[in-house]
Design goal:
It is a single chain. About 45% of the residues lie in helices and about 20% in strands. It has about 725 residues and is an alpha/beta fold. The chain has six domains: about 130 residues; about 220 residues, no CATH class; about 35 residues; about 90 residues, Beta-Lactamase (2-Layer Sandwich); about 70 residues; about 150 residues, 2-Layer Sandwich (Heat Shock Protein 90), CATH 3.30.565. Strands 1, 2, 3, 4, 5, 8 and 9 form a seven-stranded mixed beta sheet that branches. The protein is elongated. The two termini are about 50 Å apart.
């Protein structure tokens, strides 16, 4: 079974994802870098410009050469004396500046009179004609006649160029030697021109104040007739230019796409207004447009791999809304135009393309799965229950057929689940990698709730087995699994058949056979005790009775000693069996009190050998949960062994300490201690160690009893060689919380 990350379907998905990404990224880059969607950008910009209008500057006044003036003063061109007359009328009104949007490039006898009138009016600015150059030159500059150029305060170009769709949105700044824009000259702005090695002219977006007629306008003839009060022009900038339809070009702007267009002098008024109020909009450079086009695309592409279809739809809508909000925010707050059109177009293109490819893959998957399931079912898939109603398309038909096959497979799965749930023992099912895919209630009770998805060997190690290898979990077999807490589980393993040659996984059964194993051990120990240790003293009693009919006192003493030994063996065996199998009645037990009580109980034996008990840490209570009688007997066995193997006059040290939620009791004597071989088997039943000072070694059940009691109480017991060669036994039990 292939891993999910390496399946053919995943590889195909990744390949198609890379293909979409490789095709979409360059497309987004080229479209944003070269302005392929410039017309759409312009349409969006025009809509925003209409919504973000600004009030016209009241200090800008247009003196219009309109149709009415032409009708009154004669057809165009007018003699220069008429322009001189206008300037003489304006001179006493003290305008701040007079900007003439009329070309005076041809010499005329009246130039001297016009130049004199310009001097009387004060600050008069004239335009420079910029025409296409000859002999490879970019432009040809034709200034006003010499007299007029000298009389003018400043000269500048009034180049107006429309975008590809015929709409004027920008003012031009051209590289040297082209004159500076007339509006910059009027305002005295020192804006650096674009570099000579780049584009000949660079455009800046004009924030129009409104449609044609937004600025206050008076007729040329009305000014000459004195119909305009003097204060109307005082301290204001006056633009003089043609607005008549028959004599000048009219330009289409974002503000009047449904009207007749805007005259050149009104365009200059908008440019002068925008520059004077710092409202000119800049356009984001190509690198920023490239980032805006590609970054959302890659975020969406990443979402295609990580998110669900509905989430991807939300992501695409969110990205589009974020891009649009960013563009609107920069447009309204920072006077920066960063068009969202390319980004939105790429998102609108990529999302359906990816959806189409995913739909095609889903259709192929449904077909393949239907064929796979249909070939494996015992009954024809067509007999499986299906939803009623007409089929909408091929994918819906495939989904309906697959649904029928899955219904039958689901019935089989439920049947298998019911069987698994009915098993009394803990049972788990794993895949080929040893990962649990199913488990019944006893398995959850034994191993915990988080079984599915975990490795079986890791789960079994939670039980702290004495020995467990990965090989123990493969292949059909049954073996006991011993745990460190004393339990024994019978591990059943059976292989599941897969589609290929190898197994698809394992079925693991865990049966608790602790009681059975304990019963078997007790039976063997009882047989050993009855056939060996308890039989030998009885034989000795019979022999002595036969040899001593008079029952002398010495003989009687020997008989009594053997009888006492028999009773001690029987008592030890009964105690050991109880410690191994009897149910515990858990209640709070003060170990400090138990230790002191057992030391006092053995005080008479200790006095016979002049052995002294020294206790430390028993002044404060130390509670654990357990059965007091068993714990008392266990500590009595430890103290009795210490007295038995200690020389006369020795000291037995008993220490009780608390360590990280545990109660540790150590018993240290000054006896001969144990050899390494003896220490390894010291807690095994029927282990006896002959020492001259110890006398009768007993049945060898005392320490085995201690270990059984301690382990059943959730603790541990171990042996150490004490400094000086004595024996030290350490009992570690959990402290009651």
């Amino acid at each position: 079974m292939p891993e999910p990350g390496r399946s053919p379907a995943f590889r195909r998905l990744l390949l198609e994802w890379l293909l979409v990404a490789v095709l979409a990224t360059p497309a987004a880059g080229v479209a944003s870098w070269n302005g392929l969607l410039a017309r759409a950008d312009g349409a969006v910009y025009d809509a925003l410009a209409l919504l973000n209008g600004r009030p016209a500057d009241p200090d800008l006044i247009i003196v219009a050469i309109d149709d009415r003036s032409l009708a009154e003063l004669g057809r165009w061109p007018w003699p220069r004396a008429r322009h001189a007359e206008l300037l003489r009328v304006l001179a006493p009104m003290r305008p701040k500046a007079v900007i003439y949007d009329v070309l005076f490039t041809e010499p005329d006898p009246a130039d001297a009179d016009l130049a004199k009138a310009m001097g009387q009016a004060g600050r008069v600015y004239l335009p420079v004609l910029v025409a296409p150059g000859l002999n490879g030159a970019r432009f040809e500059h034709v200034p006003p006649t010499a007299l007029l150029a000298q009389a003018a305060v400043g000269l500048g170009h009034v180049i107006i160029r429309a975008d590809a769709d015929g709409v004027v949105r920008r003012r031009d700044r051209c590289a040297a030697p082209t004159p500076r824009p007339l509006a910059e000259v009027v305002l005295g702005l020192e804006i650096p021109p674009p570099p000579a090695d780049g584009a000949p002219c660079v455009g800046e977006l004009i924030p129009f104040a409104g449609p044609p007629g937004a600025y206050r306008t008076v007729s040329f003839g009305s000014v000459l007739r004195g119909e305009v009060p003097a204060e109307f022009f005082t301290g204001r900038r006056v633009l003089v230019g043609a607005t008549a339809l028959g004599m000048t070009d009219h330009f289409q702007t974002p503000m009047d796409r449904l009207g007749g267009g805007m005259s050149g002098v009104e365009l200059q008024a908008n440019i002068l207004d925008a520059l004077g109020n710092g409202a000119v909009r800049s356009e984001a450079g190509r690198p920023w447009r490239l980032v805006l086009a590609i970054l959302p695309l890659w975020i969406l592409m990443a979402g295609f791999l990580a998110l669900k279809p509905a989430q991807n739809l939300g992501l695409a809508i969110g990205l589009g809304a974020a891009v649009l909000a960013l563009s609107l925010g920069l447009f309204g707050l920072s006077h920066l135009w960063l068009s969202p059109v390319t980004t939105l177009a790429i998102l609108l293109l990529v999302f359906p393309v990816w959806g189409w490819r995913r739909l095609a893959m889903a259709s192929d998957f449904l077909k393949a799965e239907f064929e796979r399931l249909g070939g494996r079912l015992e009954a024809p898939v067509a007999q499986a229950p299906m939803a009623h109603g007409p089929v909408a398309d091929v994918v819906a038909s495939q989904a309906r057929a697959l649904s029928g096959a899955i219904s039958r497979m689901d019935a089989l799965r439920r049947f298998a689940d019911d069987i698994l749930a009915s098993l009394p023992d803990a049972t788990l099912v794993t895949d080929a990698r040893g990962v649990v895919i199913q488990a019944n209630a006893p398995a959850h009770a034994l191993l915990g709730e988080d079984l599915v998805g975990a490795r079986l060997i890791d789960l079994l190690r939670r039980l702290e087995p004495v020995a467990l290898e990965a090989e123990d979990l493969t292949g059909p077999h049954a073996r006991p699994l011993a745990l460190r807490d004393g339990r024994t589980l019978l591990l059943h393993t059976a292989s599941r058949r897969g589609e290929g040659e190898g197994p698809a996984g394992e079925v693991i059964g865990l049966a608790d056979v602790t009681e059975l194993m304990a019963t078997a051990r007790q039976r063997e120990q009882a047989l050993q005790l009855l056939t060996h240790d308890m039989r030998s003293p009885q034989t000795s009693i019979l022999a002595l009775l036969q040899q001593s009919p008079g029952l002398e006192p010495t003989v009687v003493g020997r008989i009594a000693a053997n009888a006492r030994r028999t009773l001690a063996l029987a008592d030890g065996f009964v105690q050991f069996a109880r410690a191994e199998a009897a149910a515990l009645s858990r209640e709070p037990v003060d170990l400090a009190d138990v230790v002191c009580e057992m030391a006092d109980e053995l005080w008479p034996q200790a006095q016979q050998k002049k052995v002294t008990f020294v206790q430390a840490g028993c002044d404060e209570p130390a509670f654990t949960l357990g059965e007091r009688s068993l714990l008392a007997r266990a500590f009595a066995n430890l103290f009795e062994n210490a007295v038995k193997y200690s020389p006369a006059g020795a000291v037995i040290a008993i220490a009780l300490t608390r360590e990280a939620g545990r109660i540790v009791v150590s018993v240290t004597d000054q006896g001969p201690g144990l050899t390494p071989d003896e220490a390894a088997a010291v807690f095994e039943p029927f282990q006896r160690f002959d020492r001259p000072q110890a006398g009768d070694p007993g049945a060898g059940l005392g320490l085995a009893f201690v270990r059984s009691v301690v382990v059943r109480h959730g603790g541990q017991v171990r042996y150490e060689t004490a400094p000086g060669g004595g024996a030290r036994f350490i009992v570690d039990l959990p402290e009651m919380v």
